[in-house]
Amino acid sequence: MTDFLTALALVFFIEGCLYALMPGRMKAMMRMALELDETVLRRAGLIAMFIGFALAWLLRAA
Asked: Which of 42, 53, 52 has its CA nearest to residue 14?
């Protein structure tokens, strides 16, 4: 559970950095995401999820 909470905290930190350092670019990216088809967003999410899982698996195995 500690690893999960640490990973969640890291996500919040990275997300916060993006909004703090380049708020205009983040707003533009949100507008772009609103224009994308849901299928494209779903595929991108699944790919990101798979890559994240694989990386976590490899890091924990090492």
From this structure: 52
